[in-house]
Amino acid sequence: MSEPVLRLEKVEQRYRQGDDILSILKGADFALNKGEMVALVAPSGAGKSTLLHVAGLLEKPSAGEVHVGGRASSGLSDDDRTALRREEIGFVYQFHHLLPEFSAIENVMMPQMIAGLSAGEASGRAQQLLDYLRVGHRANHRPAELSGGEQQRVAIARSVANAPLVLLADEPTGNLDPETAGYVFEALEALVRQSGLSALIATHNHTIAAMMDRRVTLRDGRVVDLEMSAAD
Ligand code: ADP
């Protein structure tokens, strides 16, 4: 089997809280294979966001290694780690975090232009992605003029604008009503499947988790496989 697109090896993450040290990840191992969609299902406070932030090179772990596209990240300079993150990782949050003063299409163009594409190239791809996520007709609206489901679809388009290797999502449908959540997840799943992306998605929604290839949870700071029946 080829090298996983994302691999966490003995990852530890500790936070200082006053005089205490909180140990959140305690030797977490995890591998995401090409084309795979994995659900991360765990109670609040278990460390899902921490795991996603470390996997997405947004936070440096206290110990252990994160490999992205076969490249170990711990020895990289801050600039090189940022470059690896920008090139290979897409991140979707529970709240859309779109820039309010820019239109939907401008929000999706932005990361591409930071990566060096011309405005023409960036807008072509942005419109294509918005169309694919069925929000293309809202391209010129600002985030405040969009519904919650539309905002999340624009945020998903933005996260994959630079064709990353790995998509990480932290409860991307957590703020949506169940029907909209299902619709947004279906759009996300179609995009991941069609583009050969790999995704690790934290969710509390068991219907959505059941649609992915496998499910993992966090138990005592480690990643373990989860059978849905055991979690119910
Ligand atoms: P989840 O996403 O599963 O709800 P988190 O990863 O957000 O869990 O948080 C796990 C634990 O780590 C929580 O107790 C949280 O308060 C703590 N934590 C997360 N980030 C920090 C931080 N930067 N500093 C201190 N504590 C943190």
Describe the fold and architecture:
This protein is an alpha/beta fold. Helix content is 36%, strand content 26%. It has 8 helices and 10 strands. It has a 6-stranded mixed β-sheet with strand order 6-7-8-3-9-10. The protein has a 4-stranded antiparallel β-sheet with strand order 2-1-4-5, with helices on one face. Helix 3 crosses helix 4. The radius of gyration is 17 Å and the shape is globular. The chain starts with 5 loop residues before the first strand and ends with a helix. It binds adenosine-5'-diphosphate.
Radius of gyration: 17 Å
**SSE sequence, one letter per element:** EEEHEEHEHHHEHEHEEH
What value does the average pLDDT take? 94
- The proportion of strand residues reads 25-35%
The molecules bound to the chains, other than polymers, are: adenosine-5'-diphosphate
Largest sheet data: 6 strands, mixed
The SS-based structural class is alpha/beta
Tell me the distance between the termini: 32 Å
Record field, number of beta strands: 10
The 3D shape can be described as globular
Strand order of the largest sheet: 6-7-8-3-9-10
Low-confidence parts, pLDDT < 50 over ≥5 residues? none
Number of helices: 8
